Amino acid sequence: MIKQANRGTLDRIYYAPYNQHTMSEPVEKTKTVEAPQEKRPLFSSARLGSTAKLKGEWVCDEDVIIQGHFQGKIDSGDHDLHIEKEAIVKADIQGKNITILGKVTGNVKASGKITIGNEAKMIGDLTAPQINIQEGANFMGTIKMFPKTI
Length: 150
Known about the structure:
Blueprint: E1 2-7, E2 10-15, E3 29-34, E4 45-48, E5 53-59, E6 63-66, E7 69-75, E8 81-83, E9 88-95, E10 98-100, E11 103-105, E12 108-110, E13 113-116, E14 121-123, E15 126-128, E16 130-133, E17 138-140, E18 143-145
Parallel strand pairs: 4-6, 5-7, 6-8, 7-9, 8-10, 9-11, 9-12, 10-13, 11-14, 12-15, 13-16, 14-17, 15-18
Antiparallel strand pairs: 1-2, 2-3
């Protein structure tokens, strides 16, 4: 029989071992174990899965990965945004480094770099210090580039 009791940051596990040679009363033993500490991952990201459809304003303080459908406004602050191949996004987007592999309609502004993949479809204006549009990408809009120091 196993019993667990929470005591602050310690868990006490009480167990009575089965002794196959004697049927005398079991002896209670105590083992003290440190409770697991909450661990934050080194890399944290928000993800919109491939079956999800979301409409509204998305503001977050971590990297963003979009695989589904999103409509509205996205602001990932000083973090990266990655729009996967199967994603469909109709939004104005802000972030640090933005990678577009899917379909995006809206204006995109990055403080770092915008990359549009070779199979991406992008309609809207791009503003960033660095912009990379790969061969094969579909792009319709304007490009505004400025130095990082602004």
